[in-house]
Structures are given as C-alpha cells and as structure tokens.
Amino acid sequence: MSIIAWVVLGLLAGAIAKATYPDYQGGGIVSTMVLGIIGAFVGGSLFTLIQAGTLQNTAAALTLPGILVAVLGAIAAIYIWGLIKRSSNA
Description:
about 90 residues
C-alpha cells in the first residue's frame, strides 16, 4: 500500500474506533491517524492468527473488510492503552 492509502486507512479506522469507543480519548488528527494505522497492524495480525493459525505481522488493506479489521484492531489498541495508562497511575 502507498503512504496515501495508509493515511486514509488510518484516519478512517481511527475516527470510527474513537467514535464507537465509550470513553473520551482526546488527541488530534495525527493521533487518530496513528491509532488507525496501529489498529490496522493489530487487527491484521489477529485476523491472520485466527484465519491461518500463525502469528504474522500483517496489516489490513484499504477495502471494506480491511477497514472493519482495522477498526476492531484500533478498538483493541484503545482498550490496551487504557489498561496501561490506568496501571501507571495507580
């Protein structure tokens, strides 16, 4: 995928994940894009693990199923970040 496709996928997945997650995340457009790109890697890797049974570092593509996988990965990344942030404040 090209850089422009990564930016578009990151913005779409990050914005949808932030809109659907029930807590306030903060951050601007760059953090939303980074969240979506991280979500594409997390979701793509988990999807490959479920589908093929092997853990590979893959990313979702700029397709409708790829965006769905990236959104699910971004929601998982938000959840994990919240756990890390909460445990460091304790």
